[in-house]
Design brief:
- The chain has 98 residues and is mainly beta.
- It has a single domain, classed as SH3 type barrels.
- 10% of the residues lie in helices and 39% in strands.
- It has a seven-stranded mixed sheet with strand order 1-6-7-2-3-4-5.
- Strand 6 and strand 7 form a beta hairpin.
- The longest helix is centred in the last third of the chain and has 6 residues.
- The radius of gyration is 12 Å and the shape is globular.
- It starts with 6 loop residues before the first strand and ends in a 6-residue tail after the last helix.
- This is Photosystem reaction center subunit H.
Amino acid sequence: MDHSKHTPLTRQELTADIIADAPIYGAGDEKIGTVSHVHGSGAITDVVIDVGGILGIGAKPVLVSIDQLNLMRDEDGKVHGVTSWTKDQLEALPEHHD
């Protein structure tokens, strides 16, 4: 996927309503997880990403700073994120518990 043609989300768009369920793509442009939910707002926002599993079953929730993600809209307006993390790196993070 050529992300260079996608529109970055503004800081005001970084809300749970907009980014929940957004797929997250890793360094190799493979899907590595999905945004489960968001903690905080503005500059102090963290995102819970479900990593692994099949269709969300057995996925491990991990917490990362929103600054670790480049969130954007594709040509169809669908929100997704890109990160330099790999799936293995995310899976190595501690499991997040609400």
